[in-house]
Design goal:
12 strands, about 40% helix, ten-stranded mixed beta sheet, binds ligand PBG, alpha/beta, TIM Barrel, two-stranded antiparallel ribbon
Length: about 325
């Protein structure tokens, strides 16, 4: 076996999995204001950005060959009804307009969820301490339409309510956005690895947790049912999230479903690697590329990752 490992050219020739900058989607956080660039302490190198700064980041990402960004919004104020999530001039809606105006070729995806917009931090309408499914679908559908109207290329529901893909598809079609694709966070697990994101998005639940809607990390067959349902409801692309602790789910999804498959290397995966890198315990460049290669090898077509910029630079050098 070692004959084919003797030089970089031979290794390159027989390499089975390749990474390209176009495999990556960069998550970004939009906040109100101007000239704001506030580092997220648990995610070194990532910032809450006001729209002017966010546009600069997008133009750099485009120059690096990254396919797109996924936008999250942190509104000025939060309320029980998540009204910022579906406001026509909400923070994400404004950010989408600005990015599509300044960097039109960059794919702009939007995360469709309510947890950044509710005062209690849950992903839907709460009645008597319980997240309500069907009333939440109306918010999600309104949010998706408002994103599409602002110019979003892809909408990505991450709330894990039942029936959201069908509700969003119907609303988009009725509003004249039959061509806007849905990337479903189809198999999204109730994961500890979202911790740093909740600092970034200021979206920690104020009571309880998300286990009544996000999936139990122990369940693989259930993940396949979730994906199947989302595809039946009209999802154009599917996603598994988190990525590295769920490579088996990515592989099973790839083998079972022909739809384009994304994986989200989430905040905690990023922070964990970054912490070890910063301590000098792991080599930065190799840790980034090996982690992303493993996700592609498991079967993901594209990866949402906070390492998009670094990885694209490494691949170009
Ligand atoms: C919104 C959402 C979350 C993430 C993406 N969309 C947070 C959550 O579900 O708690 C996490 C992304 C990350 O950790 O990088 N619901």
């Amino acid at each position: 076996m070692r004959r084919l490992r003797g030089s970089e050219s031979l290794r390159g020739l027989v390499r089975e999995t390749r990474l390209e900058p176009s495999d990556f989607i960069l998550p970004l956080f939009a906040v109100p204001g101007k000239g704001v660039r506030k580092e997220i302490s648990s995610m070194p190198g990532n910032h809450q950005l006001s729209i002017d700064e966010l546009v600069k980041e997008c133009s750099d990402a485009h120059q690096l060959g990254i396919s797109g960004v996924i936008l999250f919004g942190i509104p000025e104020t939060k309320d029980e009804l998540a009204s910022g999530a579906y406001a026509e001039d909400g923070i994400v809606q404004q950010a989408v307009r600005a990015v599509k105006r300044e960097v039109p070729k960059l794919l702009v995806m939007t995360d469709v969820c309510n947890c950044e917009y509710t005062s209690h931090g849950h992903c839907g309408l709460v009645v008597d301490g319980e997240v309500q499914n069907d009333p939440t679908l109306e918010w999600l559908a309104k949010a998706a339409v408002s994103h599409a109207r602002a110019g979003a290329d892809v909408v990505a529901p991450s709330d894990m309510m039942d029936g959201r893909v069908a509700a969003i598809r119907k609303a988009l079609d009725e509003a004249g956005f039959a061509n806007t694709p849905i990337l479903a966070y189809a198999a999204k697990f109730a994961s500890v690895f979202y911790g740093p994101f909740r600092e970034a998005a200021e979206s920690s639940p104020q009571f309880g947790d998300r286990r009544s809607y996000q999936m139990d990390p122990a369940n693989a067959r259930e993940a396949l049912r979730e994906i199947e349902l989302d595809l039946e409801e009209g999802a154009d692309m599917i996603m598994v999230k988190p990525a590295m602790p769920y490579l088996d789910i990515i592989r099973q999804a790839r083998d079972r479903f022909p739809a384009p498959l994304g994986a989200y290397q989430v905040s905690g995966e990023f922070s964990m690697l970054m912490a070890a890198i910063q301590k000098g315990w792991l080599d930065r460049d190799r840790a980034i590329l090996e982690s992303l290669t493993s996700i592609r090898r498991a079967g993901a077509d594209f990866i949402l990752t906070y390492f998009s910029r670094e990885a694209a630079r490494l691949l170009a050098s």
